[in-house]
Amino acid sequence: MASSFGKNIIFLLFVNLLIKPLYIFGIETQAQNMLGPQTWGIYFGLFNFCFLFQIILDPGIHNQNTKWVAENRGSLQRRIGQTIALKLLLGLFFLALMSIAAFFIGYPLEYFRVLLFVGLNFFLSSLYVFLKSHFPAMGEYQKETFYSILDKVLLLILLGYQIYILQRLDLMGFIYSITIANFMAVVIAYLGLTSFSPVYLRFSISEASELLSKSFGFALVGLFMSMYNRLDGVMLERMLDDGGYSAGVYAAGYRILDASNMFALLFASLLLPMFAHQLIRKDEIHNLVSQASRMMLAIISGVVLCGFFYAEEIMDLLYTDYTVEYSQTFKILILSFIGVGLSYVYGTLITASGKLFYFNCLLFAGILLNVTLNYLWIPSQTTIGAAKATLITQLFVMLGQLVLVLKQFGFKYNLRTSVQTLLFIGIAITSAYLLQQLEFFWPIRLILTGFILILASFLLGLLRLDTFFGSQSEENKNHT
Known about the structure:
By secondary structure, the chain is mostly helical. It contains 21 helices and no strands. Helix 1 (about 1-35) runs antiparallel to helix 12 and helix 5 (about 80-105) packs antiparallel against helix 6 (about 110-130). The chain is globular, with a radius of gyration of 22 Å.
């Protein structure tokens, strides 16, 4: 299973690295430049506001369903139609409740058309994620690659035409394009799913109640993670009277963190069904966690060090209205990827186990910490304060997850792995710092930093070629 994970995650990362950066930097960044930081700041605030209601769209159904399908791969037809019907009803409830909440907290009436379509996009995106999650759960890991980029490819076409051919874009045009792309992706994923099993939409109150009750713990995980990840954008837009400017500056740096999160999320999309399918094999789980953690550490090091040491150059390159506030905020934000990345490994294992009480207590503590720090720091430090609150919260939650994993699964301390990890971190920081001091074209220095980190990963054993190219027979042998 560890070998299967290695081969599939490398292919998944490779394909996503071709497509998603094109969307993030070629489309979304250019959209912010064309719309301006204030308009984008309003959109970012409304987007994060919708995120707070994500639990209604997914009250734990996605993770619980992935776990169930991975454990019952021959019984897909038993629940898929019922679950899709339930999600349609939840979507209507989501839009209604979100609109009522927006009215009571005082959003201007002119925001409501934007809010309605942003909410609709959330619903379509949630439905798409649910549909495509069945493919890795059924063991069809290669199809996860196609569906992981489908929506972004559609957006590249629709928005690329407006930005680079027509050379004009307004906020509603941007939002409508996302709506069309999400709807097309949902239709394609639905048709792909029917190749595994016929889908008959039906709704039973008793079955829906049973599904929701089984999903409750997973729902709290989703709610708490959404809150401590997204409250900063909402609080910046609501607490500061600057027309959304600070939220726009924060969004500029958060975009790259979000892009990094997209790739870390790919680990979770593969690991959750693999963990759920292999929970009874303690040794296999240990090997899989170890391999995923080492790979994630290598990715984290490259993203964090390159982002931190070249923050000014990256922000100045991407944004036409760049000021030093952009890079100062981004420098702090990108450090939080240390916590985010490793959480996608440890948190996914805890989720797969279904033992979520202490996990939810930890996430709730993360919300309290994040809200408190944002409340104290945003009025005086604006975007810098919000970024510091995010960094501290993410590291706190990640360390808590590590403790839970060690206690719950009884993983033993490995001196050799610890030494390898410390040596790698030392080499990574030193080489990144020394290269940053050199006086030649910064993209070359950045590429050299990445090359040294990859080389050090293999030399110190964090990454191994047999993980990616080990034969299937060897993998099967390990299970006997």
